[in-house]
């Protein structure tokens, strides 16, 4: 686009009559209205495209959505909710769709509060006193049990983020914990999915209603501790091959934040889990995963949620993620020999034993550090059954246990990282 505009300027300097314009397809110069170039573009259309391109170039140079509403709401729009949406677009760019959507929904809550308490309709009139009143109102709802601490903190954090994006400073920033208290990610009740009979009954009910794929997804989530997205996008055929050859599978697709592209997460395979993989592979013939060919991931999620809600209530089960929590409790007991704290009601295994067992590699697990100068062909010849990734020091081989310990009632602890570039694990332990 810029090159074509430059060509137009050069043609005007080289003797082309005023009011004539060159086409992007190197056609002869034509008049603005009465002539048509051989490619079918008139001079008037070329002028319009030049104005459009110039506008696009100016927008790309500016790179933001500012000054669309004068001085109101710091130039981001006439309405506070719309101005916050534009400011978030400036902050996060074209990506971070889920983050932006969450902030936009929570920002609308604050906009309603500001309108009802003080008739504030312009972000320039938002004061620290108004934000503090908002925090105290949320704290009262937390104390009455109408709202969770985590959600109240998220509401205040959104105000901090949006106001910082609007003002380009942190003058009005407040601490969420000061008003609503500290949140906790530790479970308070044991997951209902620990009872495998309930999970099997729910899976059988799904198959009776014709939801074979949803039933297989439930079994994979319970047997491997997978999130919904991970179980949906898991390449069941490749996973079954890994289970037969190595006794474990590597979860890389659908991971949280895309971390599967940089961190290996090997999950051990039991006999029950292997049967679940075989069932899923038989259902998904012709495709890599459990998502039907005629559905997108969003449509598949809605379909699975609808089917699961019917059978989960009948079998006294919660959502899909509760099955991952049940796996975490089960895995904790396998590694430490003691029930998970959320099951026992207290920490039966000492912190030292639990940390040592979670971080100790099994005798059949050989973790190898490969020099960064190794040729990729050598690495592929040595380990043909898996994808080779060369990484910088500090990368670690993930475990299925370390990522969901909070579900078992264990406080999150930082695991020590090692300069691991390649890993070959052939045992039955998943650490």
Rg calculated over all Cα atoms = 29 Å
How many structural domains can be distinguished in the coordinates?
A: 3
* Average pLDDT for all residues: 74
CATH C-level of the largest domain = Mainly Alpha
Give me the number of helical elements.
17
Overall shape:
globular
First-to-last CA distance: 54 Å
Q: Would you count the extended β strands for me?
A: 5
* CATH domain fold name of the largest domain: hpI Integrase, Chain A
Biggest β-sheet: strands ordered side by side in the sheet:
1-2-4
CATH architecture of the largest domain: Orthogonal Bundle
| Strand portion | under 5%
Helix content: 40-55%
User: SSE order in H/E notation?
Assistant: HHHHHHHHHHHEEHHHHHEHEE
Poorly predicted regions: 1-67, 360-406, 411-431
| Helix-and-strand structural type | mainly alpha
Q: Main beta sheet, described?
A: 3 strands, mixed
């Amino acid at each position: 686009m810029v090159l074509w505009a430059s060509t137009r300027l050069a043609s005007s300097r080289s003797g082309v009559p005023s009011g004539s314009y060159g086409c992007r397809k190197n056609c002869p110069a034509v008049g603005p209205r009465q002539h048509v170039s051989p490619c079918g573009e008139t001079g008037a259309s070329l002028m319009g495209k030049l104005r459009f391109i110039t506008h696009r170039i100016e927008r790309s140079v500016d790179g933001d959505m500012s000054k669309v509403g004068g001085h109101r709401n710091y130039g981001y729009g006439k309405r506070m909710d719309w101005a916050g949406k534009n400011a978030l677009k400036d902050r996060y760019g074209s990506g971070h769709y889920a983050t932006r959507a969450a902030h936009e929904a929570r920002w609308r809550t604050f906009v309603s509060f500001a309108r009802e308490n003080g008739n504030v309709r312009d972000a320039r009139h938002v004061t620290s006193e108004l934000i503090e009143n908002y925090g105290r109102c949320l704290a009262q709802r937390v104390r009455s049990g109408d709202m969770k601490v985590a959600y109240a903190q998220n509401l205040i954090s959104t105000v901090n983020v949006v106001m910082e994006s609007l003002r380009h400073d942190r003058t009005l920033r407040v601490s969420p914990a000061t008003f609503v208290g500290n949140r906790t990610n530790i479970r308070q009740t044991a997951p209902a999915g620990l009872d495998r009979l309930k999970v099997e009954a729910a899976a059988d009910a799904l198959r009776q209603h014709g939801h074979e794929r949803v039933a297989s997804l439930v079994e994979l989530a319970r047997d491997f501790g997978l999130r919904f997205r991970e179980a949906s996008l898991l390449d069941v055929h490749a996973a079954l091959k890994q289970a037969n050859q190595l006794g474990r599978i590597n979860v890389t697709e659908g991971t949280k934040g895309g971390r599967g592209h940089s961190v290996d997460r090997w999950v051990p395979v039991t006999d029950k889990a292997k049967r679940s993989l075989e069932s899923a592979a038989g259902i998904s013939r012709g495709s890599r995963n459990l998502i039907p060919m005629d559905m997108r991931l969003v449509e598949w999620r809605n379909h699975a949620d609808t089917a699961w809600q019917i059978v989960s209530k009948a079998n006294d089960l919660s959502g899909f993620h509760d099955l991952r929590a049940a796996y975490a409790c089960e895995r904790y007991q396998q590694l430490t020999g003691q029930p998970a704290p959320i099951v026992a009601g207290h920490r039966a295994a000492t912190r030292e034993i639990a940390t040592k067992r979670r971080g100790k590699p099994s005798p059949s697990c050989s973790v190898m550090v490969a020099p960064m100068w190794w040729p990729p062909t050598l690495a592929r010849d040595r380990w043909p059954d898996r994808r080779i990734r060369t990484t910088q020091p500090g990368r670690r081989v993930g475990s299925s246990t370390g990522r969901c310990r909070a579900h078992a009632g264990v406080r999150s602890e930082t695991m020590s990282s090692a300069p691991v570039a390649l890993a070959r694990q052939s045992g039955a332990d998943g650490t």
